[in-house]
Each structure stands twice: as C-alpha cells, then as structure tokens.
C-alpha cells in the first residue's frame, strides 16, 4: 500500500496512472451531469416564490462549494509540498489554480444572474458575494505570483507560502465581511429566507455537487498530465514517450 | 546562540535600517506624500461639503493609508536583496523570525508612524470631529503594524521579481480587508458617540495574531525567494 503511494508521487508513474483514470472519470462525469441536470431542470418542481429562476442553484451552489474546496485543497498541497517536498504537489496545485478560479468566477457570475430577477440588480454587496469576490482575488494573486517568478522551484515555494497565509486569513476575512455586512445591510434588500430545501430539489443538488467534484478531478488530472510533460520535458521517459507517439 | 547576542542583533539591525532610512529619505517620504495627496484629492473630486466629507473620511483615510503602506512595503527587502546583504542575513545563525521582526519594526517606524503623526492634519482636512480623530489615531496605531507585517510577507514573496510593486499590492490587499473593515467601523462608531471598545479589541487581536505568526511566514518566504539572488 505505502509502496504504491510512494510510486504515485513520482511524476512518471502518476502520468500513466492519471492517463488510465481520465476516460473513466470523464464518462462518470457526463453521466452524473446528465442525471443531475435532468432531475434539476426537468423533474424538480418550480419554487412557489421564485418560479423557475431558482434552478440556477444547481450550478451556482456546487460551484461556490467547489471554489472553497479547491482553495483549501491547494493549501493542503502547499503544506505537503513544504514539509515533505513531494514534487507532485506543485504540479497538482498549479493545475488546480485556474480551475478553482473558474469555479469562483462561475459562482460569482451565476450569483449575479440569479440576483438580477431576485434582488433587481446584478450586484449587491452581500456578505457571501463579497467573500467570494475576495476569494477570486486570492486565486488571481496566487496565479500572478507563480507566473511572475521565472524559476519553477522558487515560484512554487513562494506560492505555497502565499497559499498558507491565505488559508489562515480566509476565516478572518469571511467573518469580518459578515460583520461588515450586518452593519451596512441596505434596507431595500429583503433577504429571502431559505426554507429547508425540499427533497426533490436536494437530491439533484447533491448529484450536481458530486458531478462538479468528478469534473474537477477529471480536469485536474488532465491538466496535471500536461504540466508533467512540460516540466519533465528534458527527461528520458518523456522524450521516449514523444518519440514513440510520433513514429 | 545566547539570548544577549541575539538581542544585540535585533537592536543592531534596527539601528542600521533606521540610519539607512534617515540617509535616503525619499524612499519613505514619497509614500507619505502620496498618502497626503491621495486624501486631499477626495474633497476635490467629491465636493467640499463638510457633512459628506465627514461621512467618507474614515474610509478615504484608511484606504489611502493602505495604498501608501503597499507602496512603501516594496522597498523593505529590495535594497538588501540587490546589494547581497539579504543573503548574508539569511546565513546568520540567529533566529530568522527575530531578524525579520527587527526589519519590519524599523520599516514601521519610518512608514507607519509618520502616517499616525500626520493624522490630525488629515482629520482637519476631512472635517472629522475630535472623537473621530481620536478613534482614527487609535485604529492607525493598532492597524498600521498589521499592514506592515502583512505587507512584509508580500514584499518577501516578490523580492526577486523585477518591479514587483503592483504584484505586491495584488497579493496583500485582499488580506488587509479585515483591518480596513474594523478600523473604519471604529471611526464611524466613534463619530456618533458610541463606544469603540469592541472594534479596538478585534484590531488588537488581529495585531497579536499577525505579530506572532507573520514573522514565520516572512522568513519562510525569504528563504524560498531571497537566497537565489
């Protein structure tokens, strides 16, 4: 078991392992999305208050969940990378960053589209929206720092420290924004109460959440494979691989 | 390494950095000037109505202080990195977090403290009441060291990047949001005559938190980026 785990840490072995896994995950992802979207968009009843416009929740909420999940996962990769110097963590975190940033952007965009019919405006300085926006900035900062430092090793070590500082700060930022919002809450916005969600809506939501997770793993593995090829392009096994593909 | 020797390193480094700052005043005077000009632009842009100014004063002064702090932070490790003394410091046997604490403290003396000294002038410019100014002073006293410490993390991360100033703000500004929120809330609360103990306690807690943890992050960042110079 441990032997297998150690081998998984080597980029060469991981490349093959991920390559074998990606088609299966992609298939599972398509099935989950099909089932989740069908249940969510067709089967689930429309909301008595919001009509059909609430259905964006099946994209909005999973992407918001994923945006936080990916950042914490990247911070865990950073900690593992700093402590045990596992090469793979740099690859996985680097490959995760654009995906996490996209999830955050998706959560912000769908929230804004949802807000237009519900609140009558594209953007309100709601506590959750604001936290999400700051999370988006943190992702962009990570990507900017990593691209600014030419040496990969240095870039990754600097970026992993930034990730750890960021993950310590996220709860502080979150609660301060919450507090700020309760002080400033504008009177025009009626915060709609979320009643306990009905089972016919909850099941598609959970399926969509799993689908998003599988989607993330699929894209992460494919991106990590590309990243491995790029980083290891001077090694023999990559050159052998390229040669055998061409012939 | 005995304690006394480490203490000597701390004060020695503090004195060295302050001496360097006195000899090259532009590196800390310019951000300060930026701070004053940025604040005085707001009345020109928004209008001289004293009530409006009083309303926006805490936010404007604090945002300007935040931006000025980011401008000043860029110089924290850069000169030492370029002339190679940072590498020498990194190889020293003394605890790294103590060394960076001395550097950050020196930097706060030349960038944070002048902002606090200038605050009465700015309070007059923005027609803040006496209570508002007093709260502003207290929040700056508690808040600017946090900005210096967080900014130092960013400065250490971008030290090897040419023209890393903008990148530094990009990394550090989101992390400064809690300070901004609590500080401006305190000043606003003070202007309506309520107690600001809660906000000040939160700021003090943030300060205690950053003072203890960020030197570790700063030295980790310097080890990651500064050694290769």
List keywords for this structure.
heterodimer, A: mainly alpha, 2 domains, B: 229 residues, mainly alpha, 10 helices, globular
Tell me what the structure shows.
The complex is a heterodimer of chains A (247) and B (229). Chain A is mostly helical. Chain A folds into two domains: 80 residues; 137 residues. In chain A, helix 2 runs antiparallel to helix 7. The radius of gyration of chain A is 21 Å and the shape is globular. About 3% of the residues of chain A have low confidence. With 229 residues, chain B is mostly helical. In chain B, helix 2 packs antiparallel against helix 3 and helix 3 runs parallel beside helix 7. Chain B is globular. Chain B starts with a helix and ends with a helix. At the A-B interface, helix 5 and helix 6 of A face helix 8, helix 9 and helix 10 of B.
Helix and strand arrangement:
The complex is a heterodimer of chains A (247) and B (229).
Chain A: H1 2-8, H2 11-43, H3 57-84, H4 87-119, H5 127-148, H6 152-184, H7 199-231, H8 236-246
Helix pairs in contact in A: 2-7, 3-4, 3-6, 3-7, 4-5, 4-7, 5-6
Chain B: H1 3-23, H2 26-46, H3 50-73, H4 75-82, H5 85-90, H6 96-125, H7 130-157, H8 165-172, H9 177-191, H10 197-225
Helix pairs in contact in B: 1-6, 2-3, 2-6, 3-6, 3-7, 3-8, 3-9, 6-7, 6-10, 7-8, 7-9, 7-10, 9-10
Could you give a quick summary of the protein structure above?
By secondary structure, chain A is mostly helical.
The quaternary state of the protein chains shown equals heterodimer
**Percent of residues in β-strands of chain B:** under 5%
- Helix count of chain B? 10
Query: How many H/I helical runs of chain A?
Result: 8
SSE string of chain B, helices as H and strands as E:
HHHHHHHHHH
Q: What is the 3D shape of chain B?
A: globular
Largest sheet of chain A: none
Provide the residue-averaged pLDDT of chain B: 88
Main interface: chain pair and counts: A-B, 28 and 27 residues
Mean pLDDT of chain A: 85
Number of domains of chain B: 1
Radius of gyration of chain A: 21 Å
Question: In one word, what is the shape of chain A?
Answer: globular
N→C terminal distance of chain B:
27 Å
The chain-level structural class of chain B is: mainly alpha
Low-confidence stretches of chain B: none
Question: Strand tally of chain B, please?
Answer: 0
Biggest β-sheet of chain B: count, sense, barrel? Answer: none
Number of domains of chain A: 2
Beta-strand proportion of chain A: under 5%
Order of helix and strand elements from N to C terminus of chain A:
HHHHHHHH
């Amino acid at each position: 078991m441990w032997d297998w785990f150690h081998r998984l840490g080597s980029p060469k072995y991981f490349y093959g392992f991920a390559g074998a896994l990606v088609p299966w995950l992609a298939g599972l992802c398509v099935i989950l999305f099909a089932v989740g979207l069908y249940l969510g968009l067709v089967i689930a009843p429309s909301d008595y208050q919001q009509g059909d416009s609430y259905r964006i929740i099946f994209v909005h909420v999973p992407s918001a969940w994923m945006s936080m999940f990916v950042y914490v996962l990247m911070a865990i990769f950073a900690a593992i990378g700093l402590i045990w110097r596992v090469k793979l963590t740099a690859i996985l975190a680097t490959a995760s960053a654009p995906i996490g940033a996209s999830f955050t952007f998706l959560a912000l965009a769908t929230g804004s589209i949802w807000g237009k019919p519900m609140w009558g405006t594209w953007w309100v300085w709601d506590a959750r929206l604001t936290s999400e926006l700051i999370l988006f900035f943190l992702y962009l900062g990570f990507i900017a720092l990593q691209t600014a430092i030419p040496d990969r090793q240095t870039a990754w070590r600097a970026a992993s420290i930034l990730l750890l500082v960021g993950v310590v700060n996220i709860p502080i930022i979150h609660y301060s924004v919450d507090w700020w919002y309760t002080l400033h809450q504008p009177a025009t916005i009626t915060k709609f109460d979320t009643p306990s969600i009905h089972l016919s809506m909850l099941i598609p939501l959970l399926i969509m959440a799993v689908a998003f997770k599988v989607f993330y793993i699929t894209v992460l593995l494919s991106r990590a494979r590309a990243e491995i090829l790029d980083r290891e392009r001077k090694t023999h096994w990559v050159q052998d691989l390229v040669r055998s593909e061409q012939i | 390494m005995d304690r006394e020797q480490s203490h000597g390193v701390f004060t020695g480094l503090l004195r060295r950095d302050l001496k360097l700052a006195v000899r090259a005043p532009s590196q800390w005077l310019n951000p300060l000037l930026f701070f004053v000009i940025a604040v005085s632009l707001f009345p020109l842009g928004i209008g001289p109505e004293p009530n409006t100014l009083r309303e926006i004063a805490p936010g404007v002064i604090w945002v300007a202080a935040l931006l000025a702090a980011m401008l000043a932070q860029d110089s924290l490790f850069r000169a030492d990195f370029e002339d190679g003394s940072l590498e020498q410091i990194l190889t020293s046997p003394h605890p790294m977090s103590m060394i960076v604490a001395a550097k950050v403290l020196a930097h706060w003396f030349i960038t944070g403290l002048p902002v606090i000294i200038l605050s009465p002038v700015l309070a007059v410019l923005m027609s803040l009441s006496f209570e508002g100014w007093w709260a502003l002073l207290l929040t700056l006293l508690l808040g600017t060291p946090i900005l210096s410490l967080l900014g130092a993390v960013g400065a250490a991360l971008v030290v090897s990047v040419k023209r890393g100033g903008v990148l530094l703000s990009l990394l550090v500004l989101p992390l400064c949001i809690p300070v901004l929120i609590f500080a401006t809330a305190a000043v606003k609360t003070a202007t309506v005559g309520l107690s600001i103990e809660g906000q000040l306690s939160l700021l003090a807690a943030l300060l205690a938190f950053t003072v203890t943890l960020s030197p570790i992050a700063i030295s980790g960042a310097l080890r990651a980026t500064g050694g290769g110079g």
